[in-house]
Amino acid sequence: MALRVREPWGRFWMRLAGRSFFGRLASGIAGWAYPGYKGRHRLARLGVAGYIAPSALLSHSTLILGQHVFIGDGVILFSRGRDTKVRISDEVYINRGCIIETGDGGSLSIGSRTTIQPGCQFSCYKGSLTIGQDVQIAPRCAFYPYNHEMAAGESIKSQPLVTKGGIMIEDDVWLGYGSVVLDGVTIGRGAVIGAGSVVTKDIPSGAIAAGAPAKELGRRVDRAKASRCSSRGSKPT
């Protein structure tokens, strides 16, 4: 469909979009005029209620959605238990096949303009997972703000869940493909986590870290400062 027809079509139907059956239907009809997958990001910007793919499963009674949120094909938001909360702020993009689960006492908060690529797992049982603004999360990342007790003589399955305080990911963090973040961790503002890392301890702001367990390998450098140092033949600090 030509752009001059597509945009009015999308605007009309996205005015009717929302979380109800008919709102989801309107999103689906709007999507006919747009390419699939990330080609439908534009629809989230056209409607205040955002775009929720017809194939997404939203089974969460305490879900709070901001404006212009994108929830892609096959995304699952599921609650099992009591006292669970999920808050997704404005202009968050959650792409295909991500799974968000909350259990007793678990919570998830995602800050504005954060983008989550396909196939990520958010398993928020017992502890809290807080993700800041402008965070970039690559495909297949996983987050576990809890653990099982592991006393001998009992099956792991039968033992209670415990938490060391949950997970905090501050603003402007970039998590590479397949990273795993475990309970009790804070990743500081502007940190970069390399692909395949397992984050078991705090990562300071501005650090570049990788490995299993993840360790600091360097620091992000201000572009202007790096340029000045390069012109002088010295290394930035």
Automatic annotation (TrEMBL):
This protein's UniProt keywords: Acyltransferase, Repeat, Transferase
Protein name: Acetyltransferase-like isoleucine patch superfamily enzyme
Originating organism: Thiocapsa rosea
Highest taxon above the source species: Bacteria
Signal peptide: none
Transferase among keywords: yes
Keyword Ubl conjugation: no
One MF annotation (Gene Ontology) recorded for this entry: acyltransferase activity
